[in-house]
Specification:
106 residues; alpha/beta; Rossmann fold; 5 helices; 4 strands; 38% helix; globular
Length: 106
């Protein structure tokens, strides 16, 4: 079974529990960085993190950019989309193929 977790403010993530996803309510970036490391050590394959929280802990997320697992994926929270998730996907695609094939901007 693949382990999946979601991190962020409780109001944004509690619905994931109904899907069987491990819900980790956290708002403090330092506590979130420790939790992220713990989840990675537990071999969690996919970790969703609210964009609001992700924006406050870029260094902790950067440590996993070059790792195969866990896949750390920013998602919009209850306050809406900030664009961080899309920017990370765009950066990953550019890194993989060498050009911006999503938006066709150079």
């Amino acid at each position: 079974m693949v382990n999946i977790a979601v991190m962020g403010d409780y109001d944004s993530i509690y619905g994931f529990q109904a899907l069987g996803i491990r819900v980790c309510p956290v708002t403090d970036p330092e506590e979130a960085a420790r939790l992220l490391k713990k989840l990675a050590e537990e071999k969690t394959a996919v970790i969703y993190i609210t964009e609001a929280l992700a924006s406050r802990m870029p260094d902790a997320l950067a440590a996993y950019d070059s790792e195969f697992l866990p896949a750390v994926i920013p998602i919009p929270g209850i306050s809406g989309n900030t664009g961080i998730g899309l920017a990370r996907v765009r950066k990953s695609v550019e890194k993989a193929v060498g050009t911006d094939i999503i938006f066709n901007e150079r």
